[in-house]
C-alpha cells in the first residue's frame, strides 16, 4: 500500500500570446495578482511562424513569450490560475475577440502541465471546469514533447527556457526542503 503524502510545491508559469496592438507591459500589469514576482521571462517570439490557430479570433502578427512566478505554489491551484487568467483575457477583449491569450501551467521535476477548459483524451479533469494537460515530460536531461504538444512548445528556445526554469525550480526545492527540515 502506498503512503499518501502532500505534493511538493510547483513552479507556475504563463504563456502570453498577444496582438502587437497591445502593450506587453499592460499585460504584465494585469497579471500582477497571478504573478506578483516574475522571476523569468523568455524572449518574445513570432507566434505565427508555428501556427495560425488563433488567426480567426486574434488575427495575425501575434507575439508570444513565457513568464514565471518566483514563489512556488500548491499544485492544486492550477484551476485558480486558469480561471483568473481568463478574467484577465476578458479585460483585453475588443469587439468580443481576444487580444490576449493566457495559458498558465506548472512544471515539476518530471513534467510540464498546462491548464485548459477543453476536455480531450490526454487531459484529466481537475475542478471548476478546468483540465490538466500533460504537455511535456522530462526525460534524458530535457523536457520532451508529447504527440499533442503545441508546435511552438517544441522549438529549441522554448525547450531551453523550460529546462532553465526546471533548474531554477530544483534550486528552489532545495531551499524549500532545507527550510522544512529546519522547521520540523
Keywords:
9 strands; 9-stranded antiparallel β-sheet; alpha+beta; 184 residues; single chain; 30% strand
Mean pLDDT score, rounded? Answer: 94
Largest sheet: 9 strands, antiparallel
Structural class by SSE content: alpha+beta
- β content, as a range? 25-35%
Shape summary: globular
Q: How many beta-strand runs?
A: 9
Ends distance: 25 Å
What is the number of domains? 1
Helical content stands at: 25-40%
Radius of gyration: 17 Å
Low-pLDDT residue spans? none
Instruction: Give the SSE order as H and E letters.
Output: EHEEHEHEEEEEH
- Count of DSSP-assigned helices: 4
Describe this structure in words.
This protein is of the alpha+beta class and 184 residues long. The chain has one domain. Helices cover 29% and strands 30% of the residues. It contains 4 helices and 9 strands; from the N terminus they run βαββαβαβββββα. Strands 1, 2, 3, 4, 5, 6, 7, 8 and 9 form a 9-stranded antiparallel sheet that branches. A hairpin with a 2-residue loop joins strand 7 and strand 8. The chain is globular, with a radius of gyration of 17 Å. It starts with 10 loop residues before the first strand and ends with a helix. The mean pLDDT is 94.
Amino acid at each position: 500500500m502506498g503512503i499518501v503524502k502532500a505534493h511538493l510545491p510547483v513552479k507556475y508559469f504563463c504563456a502570453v500570446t498577444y496582438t502587437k496592438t497591445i502593450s506587453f507591459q499592460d499585460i504584465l500589469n494585469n497579471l500582477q495578482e497571478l504573478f506578483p514576482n516574475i522571476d523569468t521571462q523568455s524572449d518574445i517570439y513570432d507566434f505565427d511562424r508555428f501556427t495560425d490557430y488563433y488567426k480567426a479570433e486574434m488575427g495575425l502578427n501575434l507575439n508570444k513569450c513565457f513568464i514565471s512566478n518566483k514563489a512556488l505554489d500548491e499544485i492544486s491551484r492550477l484551476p485558480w490560475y486558469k480561471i483568473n487568467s481568463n478574467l484577465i483575457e476578458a479585460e483585453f477583449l475588443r469587439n468580443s475577440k481576444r487580444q490576449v491569450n493566457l495559458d498558465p501551467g506548472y512544471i515539476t521535476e518530471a513534467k510540464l502541465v498546462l491548464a485548459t477548459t477543453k476536455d480531450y483524451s490526454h487531459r484529466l479533469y481537475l475542478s471548476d471546469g478546468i483540465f490538466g494537460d500533460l504537455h511535456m515530460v522530462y526525460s534524458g536531461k530535457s523536457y520532451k514533447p508529447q504527440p499533442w504538444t503545441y508546435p511552438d512548445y517544441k522549438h529549441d528556445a522554448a525547450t531551453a527556457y523550460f529546462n532553465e526554469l526546471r533548474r531554477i525550480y530544483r534550486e528552489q526545492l532545495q531551499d524549500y526542503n532545507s527550510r522544512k527540515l529546519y522547521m520540523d
